[in-house]
Amino acid sequence: MYQISDFLFEEIQENYPELAEHILMENKPENSCRYISREKRYEVLRRQKWRCNICGCKLKYSKENSWEGEVAHIDHIFPYTQKEFYFNREENINELSNLQALCPKCNLTKSSKEIQ
């Protein structure tokens, strides 16, 4: 069993998606709903036209991408840390309407605050 901080896991998920999947499989069920699938991650980025939802800077899927931009953080609009209070039920915290792509700077600034 792995013990990893949320920040470190997010970095692993962005840069080594296969390793992130392995970590989640080893740590089920506690952290399994924190994982954002590759398909959802791509859909969020595509929906936002590969731009940060706060500052508008260019984003990319992972550091392996050749184009310029920050590696996207996929963020919960309604904070994951407050998932038990999510209006559409806790198990739906990862639905597309609650996800946004942010640059690392905006995501770290946002922390657990809900975007209005």
Notable characteristics:
4 helices; two-stranded antiparallel ribbon; 116 residues; alpha+beta; globular
Q: Biggest β-sheet, characterized?
A: 2 strands, parallel
Structural Rg: 14 Å
Average pLDDT reading: 81
Q: What characteristic shape results from the CA principal axes?
A: globular
Helix count from the secondary structure assignment: 4
Order of helices and strands: HHHEEEEH
Brief description of this entry?
Helices cover 32% and strands 10% of the residues. It is α+β, with helices and mostly antiparallel strands.
Please tell me about this protein's structure.
The protein has 116 residues and is an alpha+beta fold. The chain is 32% helix and 10% strand. It contains four helices and four strands. It has one domain.
Summarize the SSE layout with pairings:
Elements: H1 6-15, H2 17-26, H3 38-47, E1 59-60, E2 70-71, E3 73-76, E4 99-102, H4 104-110
Parallel strand pairs: 1-2
Antiparallel strand pairs: 3-4
